[in-house]
Automatic annotation (TrEMBL):
The keyword Glycoprotein does not apply. The chain crosses the membrane at residues 20-52, 73-93, 105-126, 138-158, 191-209, 230-250, 256-275, 282-302, 326-349, 369-394. The keyword Transmembrane helix applies. It comes from the Bacteria. This is Uncharacterized protein. The lineage of its organism: Bacteria, Pseudomonadati, Campylobacterota, Epsilonproteobacteria, Campylobacterales. Keywords: Membrane, Transmembrane, Transmembrane helix.
């Protein structure tokens, strides 16, 4: 692939701020997206096992619906969080993203319907299990497979976008144009590694779940201990599987001895000991977040190097500074997003820790955060629409 083609595919308007900022935001937000992908697939997969045990086992009777609920919420969060890296990738790597979307156009359409169908069936599974313990097994399995397929499609887009040298051949194999949009590329080792991370993530989730419930009197000690030890077992086995898959992936792409790869391996070993010991799973979670960020950075490093070799560097993307847009974006992200998420998390934490019905209006912190969130949101809407209308009318009147 000639660098001039890649450069010609960039947005002529340039980028509104320094590319490195978009790159950092991409790494950060993809790690967040991935965290919920792994939690969704992990908790859903384990809940399916639970549906077979739930009738005869008291522990699984409690755990299974909770896992189904965790998966259900995680899917909605992963969808929301998937939008952010999507926006950043199309700002700095637009040639890659749009060529991929053209070559795999049919899969892009199919992706949306796959997600809609998979999530609807998930709700079916959730209600069937609620109505009848152990119910909805088959629908649950179908939904699980559909969601894994959605992840495989995402993987296809990521992999195709990393193959600029082959684009021409995909577009016109043997010189004959193929505009069907059915291009599909899978890198099996990379995909296995990505999906395998669901196992340690659900293991650690169980340790957190157990720790969280340990202060509640309505959950027996046997149950709390059972979930903690189950989490340890799943976490350890999962980490070993992911570590092997990671090394295989690094060997394949030739990055095994790169400092970033070594840092990830060290991170995984540290995680392994922390999960085995389970002295404070909340701290283990912080380490997991760091490792997830490193893995996200690794994905970006591989892409950056492939593109740099072809003469495309995001750092040379023409910058057309647009300070107000960036300020608005950062304020929305940090202030509205930060306060809103803090409100939801505080509320969820307190609801979970409280026995019986929790009345948020009687809680000082929750009320304060709720009021802040509402006021900031109203202010945000006024500024957003006011600003938009002003610019629109200034342009057309
Ligand atoms: C159940 C649904 C989904 C699953 C299981 C899933 C899973 C994944 C996986 C495994 C990857 C990494 C692929 C790789 O690096 O090989 C990925 C990447 C990504 N996903 Fe998702 N995803 C889902 C839905 C979404 C949605 C709805 C969006 C956007 C709204 C999204 C946006 C992204 C983006 C932007 C990337 C990075 C692509 C790139 O770097 O080229 N995902 N996803």
């Amino acid at each position: 692939m000639d660098a001039s083609i890649l450069l010609a595919l960039r947005d002529p308007a340039g980028v509104p701020f320094y590319p490195v900022v978009f790159q950092v935001l991409y790494v950060l937000t993809w790690a967040l997206h991935a965290a919920f992908v792994f939690l969704a697939l992990g908790s859903m997969g384990l809940s399916l096992y639970g549906t077979f045990k739930q009738k005869s086992d008291e522990n699984w009777k409690i755990l299974t619906p909770h896992l189904i609920q965790t998966g259900k919420i995680s899917i909605s969060i992963l969808i929301v969080l998937g939008v952010a890296p999507l926006l950043f990738t199309q700002v700095i790597y637009d040639p890659n993203w749009y060529v991929t979307n053209t070559l795999s156009g049919m899969w892009v359409f199919i992706f949306i319907y796959t997600l809609v169908l998979g999530y609807i069936l998930y709700y079916w599974y959730y209600f069937a299990n609620k109505k009848n313990q152990g119910g909805g097994k088959l629908i649950g399995i179908i939904s699980f497979l559909i969601l894994i397929f959605a992840g495989t499609l995402m993987h296809n887009f990521a992999v195709t976008s990393l193959m600029p040298n082959d684009w021409m051949n995909m577009y016109a194999p043997n010189g004959i144009v193929d505009n069907s949009g059915w291009t599909f590329n899978v890198d099996t080792v990379r995909l296995i590694f990505m999906l395998s991370l669901s196992i340690p993530v659900v293991g650690l989730f169980l340790q957190n779940y157990s720790r969280f419930l340990s202060t509640r009197e309505d959950f027996s000690e046997t149950f709390v201990k059972y979930t903690a030890s189950l989490g340890t077992k799943i976490g350890v086995v999962g980490l070993i599987i992911s570590a092997v898959a990671f090394v295989a992936w690094m060997l394949q792409v030739g990055y095994l001895l790169h400092p970033l790869s070594i840092a990830i391996v060290i991170g995984v070993v540290v995680l392994l000991f922390m999960i085995l010991k389970n002295s404070n799973s909340y701290i283990t979670t912080i380490v997991l977040v760091v490792v997830a960020l490193l893995i996200s950075a690794m994905r970006e490093l591989i892409r950056f190097d492939i593109m740099a070799k072809l003469g495309y560097s995001i750092y040379e993307y023409p910058v057309n500074l647009e300070i107000p847009t960036i300020v608005m974006f950062l304020l929305t992200f940090l202030v509205l997003g930060g306060v809103g998420v803090a409100y939801l998390l505080t509320l969820a934490w307190k609801v979970g820790k409280n026995q019986g019905v929790f009345d948020g209006t009687k809680d000082k912190a929750v009320t304060k955060l709720g009021n802040y969130t509402l006021s900031i949101m109203v202010l945000w809407m006024v500024v957003y629409f006011g600003w938009g209308m002003t610019i629109l009318f200034m342009n057309i009147l």
